[in-house]
Amino acid sequence: MKNLILIRHAKSSWETPIQDIDRPLLQRGIMDAHLVSSSILKYIPKTFLLWSSVAKRAADTALIFAQNISFPIENIVYKDDLYTFDENQLEKVIKSCDNLYESVILFGHNEAITNFVNKFGDSFIPNVPTSGFVSIQFGVNHWDKIDKGRTQKIVFPKDLK
User: Fold this and answer.
1) 141 to each of 2, 6, 96, 102, 153, how far by Cα in Å?
2) CA 69 to chain centre
3) Which CATH number is correct for 2-160, 3.40.50.150, 3.30.360.10, 3.40.50.1240, 3.20.20.450?
4) What's the confidence (pLDDT) of residue 84?
5) How far is CA 85 from the centre of its chain?
6) Which residues of 77-113 are buried (b: 16+ CB within 10 A; e: fewer)?
7) pTM, rounded to two decimals
């Protein structure tokens, strides 16, 4: 059994003319990341691998979640290939995971996350919002064999306000 939690980075700023990869979080994004991460503790597996895109907004969101779920921040794995908006690239990265790990928590970007959860989960989600949390369980023992799974839990900031 494989468990995948996908979290879209928190709301980021478009205010300054900087490269997309360097965009920081807005205060609202920071607050939403704290709100969601503080409410999902019972849905977090006992052991897991935590991956994040190298983009500043995803990495900062991963740090907030890690702190609130008591995950050592030095164990976050930052992956260049998670800085993608394409669900096929996201799928490729997920399917490359070592089978020793039963559960992965991943911080990434839209459209990749919304399209991935709709392809692999059993609940249609029109748009995974910023700080959105989606957990999918797969009835296989190898990451490269994941196919249609069961959407276990969906938590969006608006549901908690």
Assistant:
1) 6, 19, 13, 8, 20
2) 14
3) 3.40.50.1240
4) 98
5) 13
6) ebbeebbbeebebbbebbeebeeeeebbbbbbbbebb
7) 0.97
